[in-house]
Structures are given as C-alpha cells and as structure tokens.
Design a protein that fits this description.
The structure holds 2 protein chains of 2 kinds.
Chain A: H1 7-24, H2 28-34, H3 39-47, H4 65-79, H5 84-99, H6 102-113, E1 119-122, E2 138-142, E3 145-156, E4 163-169, E5 179-185, E6 191-196, E7 207-218, H7 229-265, E8 267-268, E9 271-272, H8 277-305, H9 311-340, H10 347-357, H11 364-375
Helix pairs in contact in A: 1-4, 4-7, 4-8, 5-6, 5-7, 7-8, 7-9, 7-10, 8-9, 9-10, 9-11
Chain B: E1 2-7, E2 9-11, E3 33-35, H1 37-53, E4 56-62, H2 68-77, E5 81-85, H3 95-107, E6 113-117, H4 128-136, E7 140-149, E8 155-162, E9 165-172, E10 175-179, H5 191-197, E11 202-205, H6 207-210, H7 245-259
Parallel strand pairs in B: 1-4, 1-6, 4-5, 5-11, 6-10, 7-10
Antiparallel strand pairs in B: 2-3, 7-8, 8-9
Helix pairs in contact in B: 2-5, 3-4
Classes of the chains: A alpha+beta, B alpha/beta.
Bound molecules: flavin-adenine dinucleotide (FAD).
Chain lengths: ~375, ~260
C-alpha cells in the first residue's frame, strides 16, 4: 500500500488550494449571508477545468478519476462547503455522457464539461424523498415527443442551472422500473420555477421547486432506454457520495483548524485553553476522526478508479464522513464557546453546513440501508 | 515572439523563516516552496504575448531538483518548454553568479525577449535581471507594469514604475525586462494544463553542459558573500497615546514622531 499522492495530484491540490484561498475564501461569508449565487466564481472554476471531472477530453472534460476528484472536493470543502453544487453539475455531465448518444453528448456534455452550461439534478418530489421510486412526475410518449407533468422540490441551483436531468415515470404502472431520465433545458415552454427555499445553510445557491406543466421535449431528450433511469442514477450516485464525503472531510478540517488556532490563543484560568486536557482530547478525537473519514473516502475513490464496485464503500464513506463532519463542527463551536455561536467566528456556519451532508444524496439512514443490503447479499 | 522567462523557486511567502543557529543560512527542512510571485507576472505576460503573436514560451530556472515542481507550474500555466540548470556548483550564488549562469544558458537558444521578476522574495536583491541584461549586452527596463510589443516584434513600449510616477520607454528587442505587480493577473494552471505539463520538454543542464568552470559560478563566482544571517529584532509593542481628544493627543504624537521615531 502506498499512501502518497502522485506529482500530478499534488500539483492539482496546490492549484485548487491557491485558487480557493485567493478567489473564494474572502467572499464566502458574503455570498452565504446575502444569498448570492457566485456565478462568476463558478465560471473561473470552469476555466480551471473543474466542471469536466467526469467526462473525457474529447467532450471537453478532464476525466480526473474519483481519487483526484476527491482531493479537489476536499480542498474546495475547506473553504466553501456549498461548492458541492459543482459535484451536482459534474453528476449531470456524467449521466448524459455515460448514457447519452453522440448527439446528446455533443449538445450537452461538451458545454457542461466546459462550464458554459450549469447542470441541475431533479429527483426529489414532495412525496418521493428517500423512497425515490415513488416519483409521480410523468413523461408520456406522444408521437416523437414526451409530455412532462409534475413537480420536483429541493433542486439545487434550480433556476440558475441551464440543463436538468429529470427523473420521471414513462410508465406509471411500474415503480422504479418505470422511471426514465429526460434532459430538460431552462426556457422550455411548460417548464417553470416555483418556490425558492429558505435554508439553514448553503444559502449561496438556490434550492428551488421545478414545475412541469405539459412541458414538451422531443424524444431526443430521453437518456438511454425507458425504464433504466434508476440504474443510471445508482451508478452516478456512487461517485456523488464519495464527493460529498470528500467535501465533508474538507469542511471538518477547516473547523479543526479554527478550533486549534483559537484554543492556543484563548486564555482562561491563566492559561491557553489548549493546555487543558479536556480540550486536548476533543482536538485529538477530531483529528483522528477526520483522518479516518479521509481514508474511507480515498479508499472508495481508489477502488472506483480501479473499476471495482464501490456501492458499499461509497455509502460507508459518505455516511461516516458526513456524520464525522457534524460531530467535528459541533465540537469546534464548543471549543470556541460563546464566540463559536457568533457569526463572526465562522464555525457556526460550518456546523450548519455539515448538517446537510447527512441528508442529501441519500440520507445517512439510507446509506445504512445500502450498506446492510450489500452485507446481507 | 519567443520569450524566455527566468523563474526562481522561493519559500512560500507565508512560511515562518528560521535562521540556523550558526547564522550561515535559513533552516530549509520544513519549507514549502512556490514560484517567486513576481516571476508569475513574467510567465503570464509571456503567455499573453504568445497568444497574440505566436511563438513559444520557455521557462529558465536554476536550482536543485526540488525546483522542477516550480518549473512544472510554469509549464502547467502554458509555457512550452523549460531549461533547468542543476549543478551543486551553481548553488549559493549571488545575483551576479546567477545571472552569469542564466546568460550562458541563453546562448544556445533563439529568443526575442527575456522576462525576469523584479526581485525574488527570498533575498530581495533586485539585481539578477539587470545584471543578466548587462552580460547579454541587451537593453533592459525594470519594474514594468505595462508591455506593448510593436507589430514588427522589433521593439516594445514599456511602462515602468518610477518614484512617484511612470516612465514610458521604447526599447529595442531583444531586451531583458523585469516584471512588477500590476502588469497582469497571473492565471492558475488548469487541470488539463497540469496533466500536459509532464509531457513538455524539460532540458536539464549541469555545469559541463553550460561550459562554465566551477569557480566562475555559485558561491565561488559570487561578488558578494553572506557572512551572517540574523532574524529581524522582535517588534516592540505599539504605543498608545493617551489624552483627551486630538487637542491633547496630536501634539504628543508629533513630538514622538519627531523625537523618538525621528521621521518628521
Ligand atoms: C440543501 C438541499 C439540496 C438538495 N438538492 C437536491 C437536488 O439537487 N436534487 C434532488 O433531487 N434532491 C435534492 N435534495 C433533496 C434530498 O435529496 C432529499 O431531501 C433527501 O433525499 C431526503 O428526502 P426527504 O427530504 O423527502 O426525507 P424523507 O425521505 O422523508 O426522510 C425523512 C426521515 O426518514 C428517514 N427514512 C426514510 N426512509 C427510511 C428507511 N427506509 N429507513 C430508515 N429511515 C428512513 C430519513 O433518513 C429521514 O431521517 C436536496 C435537499 C437539500 C436539503
């Protein structure tokens, strides 16, 4: 076993770190506070090639592989947790690249990989969250077209994204086997945006409702075959879960760094609080857990790059890393005491941001369902 | 336009620099190294020139094997090729000895312009570029903040920062120019750039390949020697001037500035 990044990975890590520190870090508080979707920052990220992590060069991508991607997301997560939106756009890019035909790849994958178009992923509905097979949005074949009806909620970058992969039933009589994925572009008649949610954190990108009211797209918008939607999503989600894990490792690292620095400066009872064993043990536990999560994430990513099945490992990495980030950010607030609860000290934001990791891309209960299913196979 | 950019690897500007107990050098064990920030402007400018006029960008860098990482950063930003001067005898040189090695390396290649950072942020000598120009017998301009190459590529107009103003100069090419903040906004290396960097030509030259003798370069060939390094004295605590309003505090401040700080 070799625990060492390649020269390229080191160079990429350094580049992303420099970029994140100079071009993101100074602005994140403002974006989050004022709910600004930083399109310009995402454009810069596109120039670096980060929107094309999941597709090959011939389609404008950089095909970085899962481990290098994890390293990138970890670095971004250290500075800007809501950068997880990038993972969603990459997921959309991957779905279309993996399942689309040549025309669809040229039309959508190339601009998505270059970050000229932003992607959105639309699965969740009011009555279909964890039970994704219960989606009610329908896409009925009519001649050479599909007519889409229904609504999606909690869609990241809803309204901002240009291209959405929408999960809809092409056969309402079936459950998961009736679901297909259609690509719908912003501006298509019958496709509109509803309520923008007020969130606990991650406020710099909108989470919004998508409404389909007799929205007509040509059959060229169907990815692959009818009824194969869930199989496509499951494959894509392994990668997405590793990314969420990686971002959470970065977030927790940021929280630990803040707590560590603060503990050395804050004096109570005549000494720095870092001299109290009670604080030291918290710091030690935080660091240990971060390292453990990082290894789970890297291992799942490494296995994925080897072409191995990683459903279980990706679920473990996602569950452990996001739960870890929740604990570590909570402890960071604790170490900063009352100051930690104040917005000026940032760790309260980390704590709010950590929570979402336990919910999205399959709640951590669902990750356990996935892990157990693999164990009991 | 073929442009050569002289690049130096320096300790990360955020590093905490410690001096060896005997004062002979700094402690380099845990240092993180980066491309000298002023050289980044040079690389960026060279890339923009290439984008406008075509040609090539060559990175020229002297130092031990660790500097290859910095060379690759330049290649990842978009430079085409690199020359790495690597020989133990080259180490410890001052600006003169360094310029001498760089000048020798430039002999075999074709170029229209040489760019150097205005200074390296490690020893802050601000002399290598100018010395290099002298050794090559080319004109030079320092602290450039704007560079316009004439359409015939035979001359350039440069804006140089001077005390309290700006000097606009016409220089014939080839020339050596040293770059200053404000010239441009250096790009980041992109992912495709980083992946391609490894495949770009990197020519490593030792002393023999340069055709120089060991006593003419490095520490032995230097005109200055470092006799001792000491860390700067610890900064004394600031002074708070107490008093009721500006009527009381300003005269005290003026008095201190005059008598203690001796700046007015
Ligand atoms: C910020 C944010 C961004 C989002 N972005 C997107 C997006 O871009 N696209 C998209 O499609 N969706 C998105 N979502 C939706 C997200 O994927 C869902 O919220 C998530 O899948 C959970 O579904 P739910 O909210 O309906 O919860 P429910 O499924 O109703 O779950 C409620 C609780 O029950 C538990 N539970 C459910 N089933 C089981 C079970 N079988 N065993 C044990 N416990 C169970 C859950 O773990 C949870 O604790 C986003 C959500 C958030 C908060």
């Amino acid at each position: 076993m070799i625990f060492k990044l390649t020269d390229d990975q080191e160079a990429i890590k350094t580049m992303v770190q420099n970029f994140a520190e100079k071009d993101l870090a100074p602005y994140v508080d403002e974006w989050e506070e004022k709910e600004i979707f930083p399109k310009e920052a995402f454009k810069k990220i596109a120039e670096l090639g980060l929107f094309g992590l999941t597709c090959p060069e011939e389609y404008g991508g950089t095909n970085m592989g899962s481990l290098t991607s994890a390293i990138i997301y970890e670095e971004l997560g250290k500075v800007y947790r809501a950068m997880s939106y990038l993972s969603i756009s990459n997921l959309v890019c991957f779905l279309i690249y993996k399942n689309g035909n040549e025309d669809q790849r040229r039309k959508w994958v190339v601009p998505l990989a270059k970050g000229e178009l932003f992607g959105g992923f639309a699965l969740t509905e009011p009555n279909a969250g964890s039970d994704a097979a219960a989606v009610q949005t329908s896409a009925m074949k009519k001649g050479d077209d599909y007519v889409i009806n229904g609504s999606k909620i909690f869609i990241s970058a809803g309204g901002e994204a240009d291209v959405y992969t929408v999960v809809a039933k092409t056969d309402k009589t079936k459950g998961a086997a009736g679901a297909s994925i259609l690509v719908v572009e912003k501006g298509t008649p019958g496709f509109s945006f509803g309520k923008t949610e007020k969130k606990m954190g991650m406020c710099s990108y909108p989470t919004r409702e998508l409404i389909f009211d007799d929205c007509i797209v040509s059959k060229d918008h169907l990815l692959g075959d009818e009824g194969k939607g869930f199989r496509m999503i499951m494959e894509a989600l392994d990668g997405g879960r590793i990314n969420i894990g990686a971002i959470s490792v970065g977030l927790a690292h940021a929280a630990l760094t803040k707590a560590l620095n603060y503990s050395k400066e804050r004096v109570q009872f005549g000494k720095a609080i870092s001299e109290f064993q009670g604080i030291q043990f918290m710091l030690a536990d935080m660091a240990t857990e971060i390292e453990a999560a990082r290894l789970l994430v890297y291992k799942a990513a490494y296995m994925k790059d080897q072409g191995l099945k990683v459903t279980k490992e990706a679920a473990m990495a996602k569950k452990f890393a996001t739960d870890m980030a929740m604990r570590v950010t909570t402890d960071a607030v604790q170490i900063l005491g009352g100051y930690g609860y104040m917005k000026d000290y940032t760790v309260e934001r980390y704590m709010r941001e950590a929570k979402v990791g336990q919910i999205v891309e399959g709640t951590n209960q669902i990750q356990r369902v996935v892990i157990a299913r693999e164990l009991l196979r | 336009m073929n442009v050569v950019v002289c690049v130096k690897q320096v300790p990360d500007t955020e590093s905490v620099i410690k001096v060896k107990p005997d004062g002979s050098d700094i402690i380099t064990d845990d240092l993180k190294y980066v491309m000298n920030p002023y050289d980044e402007y040079g690389v960026e400018e060279a890339l923009q020139i290439k984008e406008k006029f075509g040609g090539s960008v060559t990175i020229l860098c002297m130092g031990p094997s660790r500097v290859v990482e910095t060379i690759r950063t330049g290649l990842a930003m978009g430079a085409d090729k690199a020359i790495h001067l690597d020989d133990p005898a080259l180490e410890g040189g001052d600006a003169f000895a360094t310029a001498k090695a760089l000048a020798e390396a430039l002999k075999g290649i074709e170029y229209d312009l040489v760019l150097c950072g205005k200074q390296a942020v490690d020893d802050d000598l601000s002399q290598t570029g100018q010395t290099l120009a002298e050794l090559l017998g080319f004109p030079h301009a320092s602290l450039i903040q704007k560079l316009e190459i004439a359409d015939d590529n035979k001359s350039a107009t440069v804006h140089c920062q001077v005390e309290g103003g700006l000097a606009v100069l016409d220089v014939s090419l080839p020339a050596v120019l040293t770059t200053q903040k404000g010239l441009n906004e250096p790009r980041y290396a992109s992912l495709p750039g980083i992946m391609k960097a490894k495949k770009k030509p990197l020519d490593t030259k030792d002393l023999a390949a340069l055709g120089l003798s060991a006593d003419s370069v490095g520490c032995a060939g230097s005109k200055t020697i470092i006799t001792k390094m000491t860390p700067p004295p610890e900064r004394a605590a600031g002074k708070v001037i107490e008093g009721e309003g500006p009527q009381e505090t300003v005269p005290k401040l003026v008095q201190l500035l005059r008598e203690e700080a001796k700046v007015i």
